Automatic annotation (TrEMBL):
Lineage: Bacteria, Bacillati, Bacillota, Bacilli, Lactobacillales
Pfam families for this protein: G6PD_C (PF02781), G6PD_N (PF00479)
Protein name: Glucose-6-phosphate 1-dehydrogenase
Positions of the Glucose-6-phosphate dehydrogenase NAD-binding domain: 17-195
InterPro entries: G6P_DH, G6P_DH_AS, G6P_DH_C, G6P_DH_NAD-bd, NAD(P)-bd_dom_sf
Reactions accelerated catalytically: D-glucose 6-phosphate + NADP(+) = 6-phospho-D-glucono-1,5-lactone + NADPH + H(+)
Species of origin: Ligilactobacillus murinus
Pathway this chain belongs to: Carbohydrate degradation; pentose phosphate pathway; D-ribulose 5-phosphate from D-glucose 6-phosphate (oxidative stage): step 1/3
Length: 492
């Protein structure tokens, strides 16, 4: 694999147009990410940001909002003043065509003032129902008629099933080609998720054993300790399957089981991911019942049940937990069960991957039983890798014990790790889409998820089926039973 490392710390010249500039995502993630890029020298003199939304804010007020969103990250007053001076606010209703003319005039002026060479990045931090309209008007009102690049960054959710995702994609792709469309999955911007490829393809000892002869099963857990918080309105229409499995979990699974790409570039990595998604077995309703488990949290100590959360119907049948067994029919991994699990109000907040290897023959040790060899990739909050081996128990007798070889990023290293949004925005500026989701990956992942959703929708569950797990546990018992059927158990 030829590794193409884009380490050039080159200043990026661009205009950012942030639709939804007054919103939560912009304030909590985007402005801090832009500031980090500024501190690291990727953004210097030649950048400008237009924040747009309907609220009639002034530039001064907008800059104060930006300042407060990066409070605590700043080294000096002059640094924050200089950074904030690049931000401009334009009140704009995305449905109003005339507003794009005002936006174009401002964009052209900033392009001249800051020497941006016509490079534009449109960040759609808004409801996807507006994406088609925005893309259409950016094109029709001439905002994209520049000498530089015009790229669009899109947030999740990308549709709620295959049909709606395709419709959305058709609307966007009329105006922005695939190579100019950057669909964010922020898990792909996480340090330890990006480490999967380094581990798998940078170590001969691992690539040699990364197959169905040596791997017993793979486990991916994305567990959250929080409930739905203030996202109830959206979450109740989505559920854990659409909110977490269709995107983050399937992307992680693809990185774990895909064949080795020819190079570390978007085209080759995407090719392998798409092959993996195509090889993912789509289940019949009967197979869904055998291989998938859903749950909804009930009340716990000082915590209300999902059905008592604000904006949630008291008889909601939305799942807040999913566990499943996936099968990928590619030659190296055929037959290896891939267990996935995600849920809210679970015992702890953690993202981790456990690769469980097949046990060795223990006859040499008198059949005393050997522990599993497990490679654990701790994504968060712990950041590092564990590998468990069997070693000799200290003492006269010849017995084995499980020993862990662990690697953790130090505090200093963790401090240097770029935030997912910072990394992904830089990738988009560089035109590097290796860590973004492409349409064909989405297409197959939605088809896989739709089969499960449709099977569930056909089941006539009684209202009292939920809740079926208590806050602070690791989900319903059926999730443990799913693995037990195959003689496996959750490692975490
Ligand atoms: P939000 O806080 O509700 O922000 C929505 C933004 O859209 C606001 O700035 C709002 O400003 C603007 N807006 C609404 N209607 C408009 C219109 N007709 N014309 C112009 N502007 C309009 O939502 P958010 O949490 O930032 O999320 C934005 C998108 O990112 C959503 O698709 C969400 O699913 C996704 N996302 C968010 C997060 C997160 O952490 N927040 C994480 C992942 C994905 P005005 O009211 O002033 O117009």
């Amino acid at each position: 694999m030829k590794v193409v490392l884009n380490l050039a710390k080159k200043e990026q010249k661009a205009l950012f147009v942030i639709f939804g500039g007054t919103g939560d995502l912009a304030q909590r993630k985007l402005y801090p990410a832009l500031f980090d890029l500024y501190k690291r020298g990727y953004l210097k003199k030649h950048f400008a940001v237009i924040g747009t939304a309907r609220r009639p804010w002034s530039n001064g007020y907008y800059r104060d909002v930006v300042r407060s969103s990066i409070d605590g990250m700043v080294n000096s007053q002059s640094q924050i003043d200089e950074f904030a001076s690049h931000f401009y606010y334009q009140s704009h209703n995305v449905n109003d065509v005339d507003h794009y003319e005002t936006l174009r005039v401002l964009a052209d002026k900033l392009d001249q003032d800051y020497g941006l060479e016509g490079n534009r990045l449109y960040y759609l931090a808004m409801s996807p129902s507006f994406f088609g309209t925005i893309c259409e008007h950016l094109k029709s009102q001439g905002l994209t008629k520049t000498t530089g690049y015009n790229r669009v960054i899109i947030e999740k959710p990308f549709g709620h099933d295959y049909a709606s995702a395709k419709k959305l994609n058709d609307e966007i792709s009329k105006y922005f080609p695939e190579e100019a469309t950057f669909r964010i999955d922020h898990y792909l911007g996480k340090e330890m998720i990006q480490n999967i490829m380094a581990l798998r393809f940078g170590n001969s000892i691992l690539s040699a054993i990364w197959n169905n002869k040596m791997i017993s099963n793979i486990q991916v857990t994305l567990s959250e300790s929080l409930g739905v918080e203030e996202r109830g309105g959206y979450y109740d229409t989505a559920g854990a399957l659409r909110d977490m499995v269709q995107n983050h979990i399937l992307q992680i699974v693809a990185l774990l089981v895909m064949d080795r790409p020819d190079s570390y570039c978007a085209k080759d990595v995407r090719k392998r991911k798409v092959e993996t998604f195509k090889a993912l077995k789509i289940y019949s309703p009967k197979e869904v019942a055998q291989n998938f488990v859903r749950g909804q949290y009930g009340a716990g100590k000082d915590m209300v049940a999902y059905r008592e959360e604000s904006m949630i119907a008291p008889d909601s049948m939305t799942e807040t937990f999913v566990a499943g067994k996936l099968e990928v029919d590619n030659c190296d991994m055929a037959g290896v069960p891939i267990y996935i699990r995600t849920g809210k109000r679970l015992a702890t907040k953690a993202t981790r991957i456990d690769i469980v290897f097949k046990k060795d023959d223990d006859s040499l040790f008198g059949g005393q039983g050997l522990a599993d060899n497990i490679l654990t990739i701790n994504v968060e909050p712990d950041t590092g890798i564990d590998f468990t081996l069997n070693t000799k128990k200290i003492g006269q007798e010849f017995a084995t014990r499980q020993t862990n070889i662990g690697y953790r990023l130090t505090k200093e290293q963790v401090a240097k790790v770029p935030e997912a949004y910072e990394r992904l925005i830089l990738n988009a500026l560089q035109g590097n889409s290796v860590n973004f989701t492409h349409w064909d990956e989405l297409e197959y992942s939605w088809k896989f998820v739709d089969a499960i959703r449709n099977a569930w929708d056909q089941e006539d569950l009684p209202v009292d089926y939920f809740p079926n797990y208590a806050c602070g546990t690791m989900g319903p018992q059926a999730s443990d039973e799913l693995l037990a059927k195959a003689g496996h158990h959750w490692i975490f």
